[in-house]
């Protein structure tokens, strides 16, 4: 096996690792936790952060309790709410803390994810 083969092997392993990414092929790999590169949002990253919402908003954003469901909400409403929580324009008990923890591209991904659930 030549050096060229070895290098090729390593780069295809990297492609496999990052094959979850909808950005596969672009320069920045989308890592699952995403903290290393929060600007890069892929499907696996979105699922990971959306799951942190389930504990209060219900599995898949379908609430059984007093906290509103996110599933099927208008994307623009979710986005607007996140921005208003972040700025404090909309009062909240806990949502400002969550809104502060995510980037605009993560808001986009979360809003698209929950609005698409039927
Ligand atoms: C610890 C519980 C908790 C978690 C976790 C949580 N939320 Fe919330 N969420 C709330 C509560 C409570 C409200 C009502 C506003 C308030 O008091 O903070 C709310 C309100 C909202 C609203 C407004 C909904 C509406 O119909 O008015 C949106 C949008 C929202 N949350 C999105 C999210 C997203 C996205 C996540 C995950 C990143 C998340 N929340 C995680 C508790 C939570």
Summarize the structure.
With 118 residues, the protein is mostly helical.
Strand content range: under 5%
- State the helical fraction: 40-55%
How would you spell out the order of helices and strands?
HHHHH
The name of the CATH topology of the largest domain is Cytochrome Bc1 Complex, Chain D, domain 2
Structural class label: mainly alpha
Would you mind describing this structure in some detail?
By secondary structure, this protein is mainly alpha-helical. The chain folds into two domains: 1-37, no CATH class; 38-118, Cytochrome Bc1 Complex, Chain D, domain 2, CATH 1.10.760.10. The protein contains five helices and no strands. It has helices spanning 3-17, 43-57, 75-87, 95-100, 104-115. Helix 2 packs across helix 5 and helix 3 packs antiparallel against helix 5 (104-115). The termini are far apart.
How is the secondary structure organized here?
Layout: H1 3-17, H2 43-57, H3 75-87, H4 95-100, H5 104-115
Helix pairs in contact: 2-5, 3-5
The structure holds heme C.
Heme C binds near residues 55, 56, 81, 92 and 93.
Key terms for this structure?
single chain, 118 residues, mainly alpha, Cytochrome Bc1 Complex, Chain D, domain 2, 2 domains, 5 helices, binds heme C
């Amino acid at each position: 096996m030549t050096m060229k083969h070895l290098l090729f092997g390593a780069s295809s392993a990297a492609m496999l690792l990052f094959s979850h990414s909808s950005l596969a092929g672009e320069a920045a790999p989308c890592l699952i936790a995403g903290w290393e590169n929060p600007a890069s949002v892929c499907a696996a990253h979105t699922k990971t952060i959306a799951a942190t919402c389930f504990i209060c908003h219900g599995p898949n954003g379908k609430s059984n309790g007093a906290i509103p469901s996110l599933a099927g909400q208008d994307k623009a409403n979710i986005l607007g709410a996140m921005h208003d929580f972040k700025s404090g324009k909309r009062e909240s008990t806990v949502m400002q803390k969550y809104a502060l923890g995510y980037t605009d591209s993560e808001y986009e991904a979360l809003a698209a994810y929950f609005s698409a659930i039927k």
